[in-house]
C-alpha cells in the first residue's frame, strides 16, 4: 500500500479522523488554500478535493495547487468521474459507486481514468462508495439507487461485498448538503460487518452529528458544505474547530 493509505492506517491506531472536502466548483483557489491552512492548524487529517459537476481541468488543478502550497496535509482526490484527476494531488480515492444503475460509475469511468492515474503517479486507494438516501446531487448524477435510510442491512451487504471485492475503504454517502447525515444505526451495522475503515459523509454540520457518527462506529468523518458555506473565513475557522472537536472529542 502507498504512503497516504499508510498514513491513514497509522493515524487510525490512535484516533478517529476528520477529512475536509473542498469542491473546486464552489471554492476559488485562494479560499481553498486558506481553509486548508486552517484545517491543518485545528488538527484535520487530510483534504479531499472533488465534486460532481465542474471539478475538472484548470479549475481542479488550481485548487489542488493552492492547497499544496498552503498546507502539508495529504490531498486526496474525490472524483466525480475520470475528469476529476489532477497530477498535483497525492492520492485518489479510486472509487466504485457500487449501487449505481449505470456501469459507467461502477467500472467505466475507472477504466477511462486508470492510465492517467498511473502516468501521474497518483496513489490509488480502492474504495467502495455507497449512496444512502437522499443522495443529493451525486445520487442523481451517479444514477444511484439510493439505499433507504431505514434499511441498514442493505448498506451492510454492499459494504461487505465491497470488501470482498478488494476495496480497502467503505464510504457511506448521504450526499453533499443532505438535510440529515447517514443514520447512526446504519453506521453501526456496517461497522460491525466490515473490517476495513469506514468513512461517513454528507450532511454533517454540527459537533453533535460528528460525535454521533463516530460513536456509532465511523472511522473517518468528511465535512464539506458546513465549512465551505460558513459565510466568512473567521466563521469557517470556528466551524472547523467545532467539527474537529466532535470527531476527536
Ligand atoms: C459529500 O460527504 C461529502 O460528498 C460531504 O458532504 O458537503 O454535506 O459536508 P457535506
As a percent range, the share of strand residues is 15-25%
H-E order? HEHEHEEHEHHEHEHEHH
Can you name the CATH architecture?
A: Alpha-Beta Barrel
Strand order of the largest sheet: 1-2-3-4-5-6-7-8
Bound ligands, named by name, code or SMILES? SN-glycerol-1-phosphate
Q: Which shape, going by the Cα principal axes? A: globular
Count of discrete domains? 1
Radius of gyration: 16 Å
Helicity, as a percent range: 40-55%
Class per helix and strand makeup = alpha/beta
Please provide a written account of the structure:
Helix content is 46%, strand content 17%. The chain is globular and about 40 Å long. The mean pLDDT is 97. It is an alpha/beta fold. The chain has 10 helices and 8 strands. Strands 1-2-3-4-5-6-7-8 form an 8-stranded parallel beta barrel, surrounded by 8 helices. The longest helix is centred in the middle third of the chain and has 18 residues, at 103-120. α6 (152-164) runs parallel beside α7. It has a single domain, classed as TIM Barrel (Alpha-Beta Barrel), CATH 3.20.20.390. The site of SN-glycerol-1-phosphate has 14 residues, from β8 and α9.
Amino acid at each position: 500500500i502507498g504512503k497516504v493509505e499508510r498514513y491513514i492506517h497509522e493515524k487510525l491506531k490512535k484516533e478517529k479522523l476528520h477529512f475536509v472536502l473542498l469542491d473546486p466548483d464552489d471554492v476559488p483557489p485562494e479560499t481553498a488554500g486558506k481553509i486548508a491552512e486552517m484545517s491543518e492548524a485545528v488538527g484535520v487529517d487530510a483534504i479531499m478535493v472533488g465534486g460532481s459537476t465542474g471539478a475538472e481541468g484548470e479549475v481542479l488543478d488550481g485548487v489542488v495547487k493552492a492547497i499544496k502550497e498552503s498546507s502539508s496535509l495529504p490531498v486526496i482526490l474525490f472524483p466525480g468521474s475520470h475528469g476529476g484527476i489532477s497530477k498535483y494531488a497525492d492520492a485518489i480515492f479510486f472509487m466504485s459507486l457500487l449501487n449505481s444503475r449505470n456501469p459507467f460509475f461502477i467500472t467505466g469511468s475507472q477504466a477511462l481514468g486508470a492510465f492517467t492515474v498511473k502516468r501521474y503517479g497518483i496513489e490509488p486507494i480502492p474504495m467502495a462508495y455507497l449512496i444512502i438516501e437522499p443522495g443529493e446531487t451525486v445520487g442523481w448524477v451517479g444514477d444511484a439507487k439510493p439505499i433507504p435510510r431505514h434499511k441498514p442491512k442493505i448498506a451492510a451487504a454492499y459494504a461487505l461485498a465491497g470488501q470482498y471485492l478488494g476495496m480497502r475503504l467503505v464510504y457511506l454517502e448521504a450526499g453533499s448538503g443532505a438535510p440529515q447525515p447517514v443514520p447512526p444505526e446504519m453506521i453501526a451495522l456496517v461497522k460491525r460487518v466490515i473490517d476495513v475503515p469506514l468513512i461517513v459523509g454528507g450532511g454533517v454540520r454540527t459537533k453533535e452529528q460528528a460525535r454521533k457518527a463516530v460513536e456509532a462506529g465511523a472511522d473517518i468523518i468528511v465535512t464539506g458544505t458546513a465549512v465551505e458555506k460558513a459565510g466568512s473565513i473567521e466563521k469557517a475557522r470556528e466551524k472547523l474547530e467545532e467539527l474537529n472537536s466532535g470527531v476527536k472529542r
